[in-house]
Protein backbone atom coordinates (compact mmCIF):
# COMPACT_ATOMS: atom_id res chain seq x y z
CA UNK A 1 0.00 0.00 0.00
CA UNK A 2 2.83 2.36 0.88
CA UNK A 3 4.54 1.62 -2.45
CA UNK A 4 1.33 2.37 -4.31
CA UNK A 5 0.99 5.76 -2.62
CA UNK A 6 4.59 6.64 -3.45
CA UNK A 7 4.05 5.59 -7.07
CA UNK A 8 0.88 7.71 -7.34
CA UNK A 9 2.66 10.69 -5.80
CA UNK A 10 5.55 10.41 -8.26
CA UNK A 11 3.20 9.94 -11.21
CA UNK A 12 1.14 13.01 -10.30
CA UNK A 13 4.32 15.05 -9.87
CA UNK A 14 5.62 14.03 -13.29
CA UNK A 15 2.31 14.74 -15.03
CA UNK A 16 1.91 18.03 -13.18
CA UNK A 17 5.43 19.15 -14.12
CA UNK A 18 4.75 18.28 -17.76
CA UNK A 19 1.55 20.35 -17.77
CA UNK A 20 3.24 23.34 -16.13
CA UNK A 21 5.69 23.77 -19.01
CA UNK A 22 3.00 25.51 -21.06
CA UNK A 23 2.00 29.02 -19.96
CA UNK A 24 -1.25 28.89 -21.96
CA UNK A 25 -2.90 25.54 -22.42
CA UNK A 26 -5.81 26.75 -24.57
CA UNK A 27 -4.88 26.95 -28.24
CA UNK A 28 -5.84 30.19 -29.95
CA UNK A 29 -4.59 29.08 -33.37
CA UNK A 30 -4.27 25.76 -35.17
CA UNK A 31 -1.26 25.08 -37.38
CA UNK A 32 -0.37 22.83 -40.30
CA UNK A 33 3.33 22.19 -40.86
CA UNK A 34 4.37 20.73 -44.23
CA UNK A 35 7.81 19.10 -44.23
CA UNK A 36 10.13 19.05 -47.25
CA UNK A 37 10.22 15.25 -47.45
CA UNK A 38 6.49 14.60 -46.91
CA UNK A 39 3.26 15.46 -48.70
CA UNK A 40 1.16 15.12 -45.52
CA UNK A 41 0.74 17.97 -43.08
CA UNK A 42 1.43 17.76 -39.38
CA UNK A 43 -1.67 19.20 -37.70
CA UNK A 44 -1.64 20.70 -34.24
CA UNK A 45 -0.41 23.69 -32.27
CA UNK A 46 2.88 25.57 -32.33
CA UNK A 47 4.18 25.88 -28.79
CA UNK A 48 7.19 28.06 -29.49
CA UNK A 49 9.22 29.36 -32.43
CA UNK A 50 12.91 29.12 -31.45
CA UNK A 51 16.01 30.30 -33.34
CA UNK A 52 16.47 27.10 -35.34
CA UNK A 53 13.39 24.98 -34.61
CA UNK A 54 9.66 24.97 -33.99
CA UNK A 55 8.19 23.21 -30.96
CA UNK A 56 4.93 21.54 -31.92
CA UNK A 57 2.13 19.49 -30.30
CA UNK A 58 0.16 17.11 -32.51
CA UNK A 59 -3.64 17.49 -32.67
CA UNK A 60 -4.06 14.06 -31.05
CA UNK A 61 -3.00 15.71 -27.77
CA UNK A 62 -5.70 18.40 -28.01
CA UNK A 63 -9.24 18.20 -26.65
CA UNK A 64 -11.49 21.10 -27.66
CA UNK A 65 -8.45 23.30 -28.13
CA UNK A 66 -6.92 22.43 -24.75
CA UNK A 67 -3.61 20.62 -24.43
CA UNK A 68 -3.84 17.35 -22.53
CA UNK A 69 -1.62 16.83 -19.52
CA UNK A 70 0.17 13.92 -21.22
CA UNK A 71 1.25 15.70 -24.41
CA UNK A 72 4.28 14.85 -26.53
CA UNK A 73 6.35 17.82 -27.65
CA UNK A 74 7.95 17.56 -31.10
CA UNK A 75 10.94 19.69 -32.05
CA UNK A 76 11.03 20.33 -35.80
CA UNK A 77 14.24 21.77 -37.29
CA UNK A 78 13.74 24.73 -39.62
CA UNK A 79 15.78 23.01 -42.33
CA UNK A 80 13.02 20.38 -42.73
CA UNK A 81 10.05 22.78 -42.89
CA UNK A 82 8.55 23.58 -46.30
CA UNK A 83 5.44 25.58 -45.32
CA UNK A 84 3.54 26.57 -42.18
CA UNK A 85 -0.16 27.39 -42.33
CA UNK A 86 -2.25 28.65 -39.44
CA UNK A 87 -5.82 29.68 -38.72
CA UNK A 88 -7.61 31.09 -35.71
CA UNK A 89 -9.44 28.46 -33.69
CA UNK A 90 -13.21 28.27 -34.39
CA UNK A 91 -12.98 30.71 -37.31
CA UNK A 92 -14.94 28.46 -39.75
CA UNK A 93 -17.86 28.31 -37.30
CA UNK A 94 -17.83 32.03 -36.65
CA UNK A 95 -17.55 32.69 -40.37
CA UNK A 96 -20.53 30.42 -41.05
CA UNK A 97 -22.62 32.20 -38.45
CA UNK A 98 -21.75 35.68 -39.71
CA UNK A 99 -22.28 34.55 -43.32
CA UNK A 100 -25.71 33.10 -42.53
CA UNK A 101 -26.80 36.31 -40.78
CA UNK A 102 -25.42 38.42 -43.64
CA UNK A 103 -27.14 36.26 -46.25
CA UNK A 104 -30.45 36.47 -44.39
CA UNK A 105 -30.17 40.27 -44.12
CA UNK A 106 -29.27 40.67 -47.78
CA UNK A 107 -32.13 38.40 -48.85
CA UNK A 108 -34.60 40.25 -46.64
CA UNK A 109 -33.53 43.65 -47.97
CA UNK A 110 -33.74 42.50 -51.57
CA UNK A 111 -37.13 40.88 -50.99
CA UNK A 112 -38.58 43.94 -49.27
CA UNK A 113 -37.11 46.33 -51.86
CA UNK A 114 -38.90 44.52 -54.68
CA UNK A 115 -42.23 45.74 -53.27
CA UNK A 116 -45.73 44.27 -53.39
CA UNK A 117 -46.94 42.21 -56.32
CA UNK A 118 -50.08 43.37 -58.08
CA UNK A 119 -52.46 41.29 -60.10
CA UNK A 120 -54.11 43.47 -62.72
CA UNK A 121 -57.79 42.83 -63.41
CA UNK A 122 -58.27 40.46 -66.28
CA UNK A 123 -54.88 38.76 -65.86
CA UNK A 124 -54.22 35.36 -64.45
CA UNK A 125 -51.84 35.38 -61.41
CA UNK A 126 -50.60 32.32 -59.54
CA UNK A 127 -48.35 33.91 -56.89
CA UNK A 128 -48.98 37.35 -55.42
CA UNK A 129 -46.80 38.32 -52.47
CA UNK A 130 -46.48 41.36 -50.28
CA UNK A 131 -43.11 43.02 -49.65
CA UNK A 132 -43.02 41.51 -46.14
CA UNK A 133 -43.61 38.00 -47.47
CA UNK A 134 -40.87 38.50 -50.06
CA UNK A 135 -38.54 39.73 -47.32
CA UNK A 136 -39.21 36.57 -45.30
CA UNK A 137 -38.60 34.33 -48.32
CA UNK A 138 -35.45 36.28 -49.22
CA UNK A 139 -34.12 35.90 -45.67
CA UNK A 140 -34.73 32.14 -45.68
CA UNK A 141 -33.23 31.70 -49.14
CA UNK A 142 -30.22 33.91 -48.29
CA UNK A 143 -29.13 31.82 -45.31
CA UNK A 144 -27.60 28.90 -47.28
CA UNK A 145 -25.45 30.93 -49.71
CA UNK A 146 -24.33 33.17 -46.85
CA UNK A 147 -23.51 30.13 -44.73
CA UNK A 148 -21.38 28.63 -47.49
CA UNK A 149 -19.53 31.85 -48.25
CA UNK A 150 -18.91 32.54 -44.55
CA UNK A 151 -17.56 29.03 -43.97
CA UNK A 152 -15.20 29.30 -46.93
CA UNK A 153 -13.91 32.70 -45.82
CA UNK A 154 -13.57 31.55 -42.20
CA UNK A 155 -11.64 28.44 -43.22
CA UNK A 156 -8.96 30.47 -44.96
CA UNK A 157 -5.44 29.77 -43.68
CA UNK A 158 -2.52 32.16 -43.59
CA UNK A 159 0.61 30.68 -45.16
CA UNK A 160 4.30 31.18 -44.45
CA UNK A 161 6.69 29.65 -47.01
CA UNK A 162 10.01 28.72 -45.40
CA UNK A 163 11.46 26.14 -47.84
CA UNK A 164 14.03 25.06 -45.24
CA UNK A 165 15.76 28.46 -45.43
CA UNK A 166 16.93 29.84 -42.07
CA UNK A 167 16.94 33.48 -43.24
CA UNK A 168 13.33 33.23 -44.47
CA UNK A 169 12.35 31.67 -41.16
CA UNK A 170 14.11 34.45 -39.23
CA UNK A 171 12.04 37.05 -41.08
CA UNK A 172 8.80 35.21 -40.22
CA UNK A 173 9.66 34.13 -36.67
CA UNK A 174 8.10 37.15 -34.95
CA UNK A 175 4.85 36.55 -36.82
CA UNK A 176 4.93 32.84 -35.89
CA UNK A 177 5.47 33.68 -32.23
CA UNK A 178 2.14 35.56 -32.18
CA UNK A 179 0.35 32.36 -33.19
CA UNK A 180 2.09 30.04 -30.73
CA UNK A 181 0.93 28.95 -27.28
CA UNK A 182 3.64 30.94 -25.54
CA UNK A 183 2.90 34.05 -27.60
CA UNK A 184 6.48 35.34 -27.43
List keywords for this structure.
single chain, 184 residues, alpha+beta, SH3 type barrels, six-stranded antiparallel β-sheet, two-stranded antiparallel ribbon, 4 helices, 8 strands, disordered N terminus
Task: Describe the protein.
The protein is built from four helices and eight strands, in the order H-E-E-E-E-E-E-E-H-H-E-H. The radius of gyration is 26 Å and the shape is elongated. The chain is α+β, with helices and mostly antiparallel strands and 184 residues long. It folds into two domains: 2-89 and 157-178, Roll (SH3 type barrels); 91-153, no CATH class. The protein has helices spanning 2-19, 91-113, 131-154, 166-178, and strands spanning 29-35, 41-49, 53-58, 62-63, 66-67, 73-77, 81-88, 158-161. The strands form two sheets. Strands 6-3-2-1-7-8 form a six-stranded antiparallel sheet. A two-stranded antiparallel sheet has the order 4-5.
Amino acid sequence: MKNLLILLLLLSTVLGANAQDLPATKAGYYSWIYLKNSSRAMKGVIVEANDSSVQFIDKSFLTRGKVMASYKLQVIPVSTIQTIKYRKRNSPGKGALLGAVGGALAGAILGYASGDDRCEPGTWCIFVYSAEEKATMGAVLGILPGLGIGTILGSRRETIHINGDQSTYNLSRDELKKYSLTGN
